[in-house]
């Protein structure tokens, strides 16, 4: 889709991009070919230069160039071209704000392998591992995950960023990550009903009681937050294509589900739910397993 995109070019925008498509100018190659014929020059030399630069930046595998140029809400167009260098990302924290807040776990998924990072064990490895990727896909990561990571690690994440929260909202899907998952038929099974606050409880159960099953459950939950981003990204990409001339030629197939290392422990979930039943009254006395 990126090579069919013109809205990132100064002076063109969304409306003129559609006019170009209607004229049969469907790709950068079409645009540059038309521009070579002075009698059919579709736009000014500045636009031609920007498209020529776009070709160079795409060949250099530089998605940051496009994320800076694309209008708000159009970064989904990066996905197909840079999928092989994309990381899906989510963090868990201790639930505190400000200086008392810290990251407890991070899960990273690149479409092939799931990487887990835990505070006190291997969390610092994340700083090097994330450098392998050029695009980040998150849900609400622009407001939460990325700023938290940059604060906690004292680093900057320079990658192009696709935040699914805003793309899905534009498509009419709201209700948070879990709500969007349900609307797309994604089932978390034994982790249904486990939320961000519960993840905090799992962390403290692990720290206080040395309960490795609580940590395993936390990491299983965090992994679900991450691996489910890929099918949501693919679905959103395909839905966005419907408003373009490429809604049949550019469709992406649904991705396979990865094998996950960590499994949720239903006994731990039920015990913590019961101990905190004032926050989860709807399941009090109802085992999850």
Task: Quickly describe the structure.
This protein is α/β, with parallel strands linked by helices and 289 residues long. Helix content is 42%, strand content 10%. α2 (28-36) packs across α3 and α9 packs antiparallel against α10.
Question: What would you say this structure looks like, in words?
Answer:
- This protein has two domains: 2-60, DNA polymerase, domain 1 (Orthogonal Bundle); 83-283, Nucleotidyltransferase, domain 5 (2-Layer Sandwich).
- Helices cover 42% and strands 10% of the residues.
- It contains twelve helices and five strands.
- The protein has a five-stranded mixed beta sheet.
- α2 packs across α3 (45-59) and α9 packs antiparallel against α10.
- The radius of gyration is 22 Å and the shape is elongated.
Question: Topology of this protein?
Answer:
Elements: H1 13-22, H2 28-36, H3 45-59, H4 63-69, E1 86-93, E2 103-109, E3 114-118, H5 126-129, E4 135-138, H6 145-153, E5 160-163, H7 164-170, H8 176-183, H9 196-209, H10 212-227, H11 229-241, H12 266-275
Parallel strand pairs: 1-4, 4-5
Antiparallel strand pairs: 1-2, 2-3
């Amino acid at each position: 889709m990126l090579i069919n995109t013109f809205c990132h070019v100064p002076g063109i925008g969304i409306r003129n991009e559609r006019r170009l498509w209607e004229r049969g100018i469907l790709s950068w190659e079409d645009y540059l070919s038309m521009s070579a014929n002075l009698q059919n020059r579709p736009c000014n030399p500045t636009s031609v230069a920007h498209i020529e630069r776009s070709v160079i930046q795409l060949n250099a595998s530089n998605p940051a160039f496009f994320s800076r140029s694309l209008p708000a809400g159009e970064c989904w167009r990066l996905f197909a071209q840079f999928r092989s260098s994309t990381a899906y990302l989510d963090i868990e924290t201790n639930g505190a704000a400000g200086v008392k807040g810290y990251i407890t776990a991070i899960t990273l998924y690149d479409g092939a392998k799931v990487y887990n990072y835990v505070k006190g064990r291997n969390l610092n490895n994340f700083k090097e591992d994330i450098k392998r990727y050029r695009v980040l896909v998150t849900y609400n990561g622009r407001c939460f995950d990325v700023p938290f990571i940059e604060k906690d690690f004292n680093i900057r994440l320079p990658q192009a960023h696709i935040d699914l929260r805003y793309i899905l909202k534009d498509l009419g899907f709201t209700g948070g990550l879990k709500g969007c998952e349900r609307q797309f038929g994604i089932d978390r099974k034994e982790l249904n009903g486990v939320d961000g606050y519960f993840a905090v409880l799992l962390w403290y159960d692990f720290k206080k009681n040395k309960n490795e099953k609580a940590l395993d459950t936390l990491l299983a939950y965090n992994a679900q937050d991450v691996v489910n981003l890929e099918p949501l990204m693919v679905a959103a990409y395909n839905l966005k294509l419907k408003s373009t001339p490429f809604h049949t030629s550019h469709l992406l197939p649904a991705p396979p589900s990865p094998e996950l290392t960590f499994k949720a422990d239903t006994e731990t979930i039920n015990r913590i739910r019961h101990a905190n039943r004032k926050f989860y009254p709807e399941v009090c006395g109802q085992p999850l397993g």
